[in-house]
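Work package 3, deliverable 3.1, input record:
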Amino acid sequence: MAVTLVIGSQWGDEGKGKIIDYLSLKSDYVVRFHGGNNAGHTVINKLGKFPMHLVPSGIFNEKSKAIISNGVILDLEVLVSEIESLEKSGIKTKGRLFISPRCHLIMPYHKILDRLYEEAKGKKKTGTTGRGIGPTYADKVSYNGIRIADLLSKTGFLEKLETQLILKNKILTALGEKKLSKNEIADHFLKIREKIKPYVAEVYPLLQNAIKNKKEILLEGAHGVFLDNDWGTYPFVSASTVLSGGVTAGAGIPPRDINNIIGVVKAYTTRVGSGPFPTELFESVGEKLREKGNEFGTTTGRKRRCGWLDIELIRFASQINGYTGLAITKLDVLDGFPQIKVCTSYTYDGKKVNYSAGDAVFLSRVKPVYKTFKGWKKPTKGIKKYADLPIEAKEYLKGIEKLAGTKIKYVSTGGERTEIIKI
Ligand code: GDP
Ligand code: IMO
Ligand code: MG
């Protein structure tokens, strides 16, 4: 029936893994189309709790096929260990997981460069996940990348590796690092390639046939709109295109074939890493959100910064992506708060301004304008019917819908697959 795209609407960690796992029950294909193992998508279902970094979060639906398409960059060690741990939990991957030969490889020097760039920036660092994401995408766009297809041919791989090491070792030694050994890297990659070979297949015809045959395709966005390389809070962003427009480049799916675009919105806001965050809370309320929401990174374990929901951001996200609906997550985390604030707009020098009016420095100076909602006393945790929500929670959701100008289609009331309301 449809191609559905799920996008994080804030600074990542909105609960995309939870929503994908739920929606994948009706999917034939679930596709990761950008980013790398900087993503950490938590899935909790009857099979257990899984932090997914590269394998699509829909792998748990045994009828569905999981695709890692060309826009994703791969750390093969992380991928192999994720596949092995899924297999150990009884989840079959052979014949169900397909990896595009066009995916670029995260090489050892990319991780070192990621660290060196951050160290050079000092206090002004981006606060990356340290997974080599920026340097790998930089090599991709400057025609210096090494792809899975290259690795499949031993001579081709060794040639490319040699060229890159000539360049990269000059840079690394100039920056005080040790030279990397071609033989060590080559041995490691040629060994690990045997483990991923059975999964490599050109996925373009698979997806085109799926569209032609009206199969259900679920596209799993990573990160969040405000980490998008163009439209996020640059330079405090990630390297890939997070927006709905990234699907054609990252998965070979034409824009007109996307039927539903669901923006995942956490009922409050969090951010890991550096960069502006207008509604950030520093004292007890922020601490309470972190504690109740267990706001620690799925990938790095870092403390997530916490604050109130920022609707100015959600309106922008909805507009630029063309959302057809929202999925609100972690409503239950707000249980018991006497008052809940929502930023409805910004001012700058006393004048109303929009997110798109400026850059990261501008955003660090805007003043949020708040609307206060009444909290609720009855817990919402695990509620599955809209009618069972406390009246104040319904008012909060209606307020979000109205201010964002986008319909809410799902409300998540807990981390588990079944803790969800479909509206
Ligand atoms: P993602 O990167 O967008 O997939 O999000 P993460 O998995 O990094 O972070 C979301 C966290 O919130 C995970 O620990 C989820 O298990 C949890 N979670 C997701 N939805 C809900 C919800 O509705 N309520 C609660 N309490 N936790 C949730
Ligand atoms: P999921 O898919 C939260 C952030 C990093 C850092 C910036 C750049 O789980 O929502 P990078 O390593 O990508 O070069 O870091 O982007 N970041 C994320 N924050 N969730 C994510 O993914 C993120 N992916 C990248 O913290 O601020
Ligand atoms: Mg995450």
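The chain has three domains: 3-40+55-97+217-261, 104-197, 264-422.
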